[in-house]
Amino acid sequence: MTAPPEHSNDEDQTGDRHKARARRTRERLLDSMYRLALEKDFRDITVQELFERAGVARSTFYAHFRDKEDLLVAGYESIGTPTTRMVHVSGHKRVVLDASTWLFIATERHASLTTSFFNSPSQTVILAHLENVLLIQVREHYRKQGFYQSDELRGEVAVRCFVGALIGLWLWWVRHDYPYPATDMTEAFDALMNNGTWPSPIDAS
After folding, report:
1. Are the CB atoms for 55 and 27 separated by under 8 Å?
2. What is the pLDDT of residues 100-154, one digit of tens each?
3. Where do the HTH tetR-type domain residues begin and end (predicted)?
C-alpha cells in the first residue's frame, strides 16, 4: 500500500497565512472596540462603526463575530485563560485556578478602558459577560478536579460563591480607582479563597 500524500509546504504556508490574517483582523476589530469605548458608551457603539474604524468589510466582521457582544466576549478571551497551580491547604495538595491573577493583572494593564466601561450605562451588560466567562472557567476547573460531578448542587454553590466573591472584590477595586496593586489584590484574595487563611484578629488585651 502506498502512504497517503502529505500536505505540501505550500499548502501549510497558505493555511498559516490565512490564520495570521484572521488573527490580525480580530485584533483590529478588538482595538477598534477599545478605542470607541473610551469615546462613548458601549450601547452606543454600532457594528458599522466597528468595521469602519477597523478598516474591514461588513462581511468580514460577521465572518468572525455574531454581534458586538460576541466581540466583547472575545476581548476577555484574548487575554488568555487562567492558569492552575498547586497549593497546600491543611496539609493536603490542591490544584487551584488562578482566576484572580488573570482578572486583576489584565485589569491593571487596561485600567483606563476598564474605568470607561464601568462608568458607563452599559456596565451591567459588560459585567454580565465577564461573570459568564468566569463561571464557565471555574465550573470547568471544578469538573476536572471532580468537585462538581460528585455533588452538582454543592459544586454549583462553590462555583458561584467563588465567582461572586472575586467579582465583588474586583468591582470594589475598580470603583475605588485601584487603591492597591493588582498583585496585592490577588494575594489577599487567594489567601482567603484558595488557602482558607483569614486575617488575624486584633488582640484586644
Report:
1. no
2. 999 999 899 888 888 887 777 778 888 888 898 899 999 999 888 887 776 788 8
3. 23-83
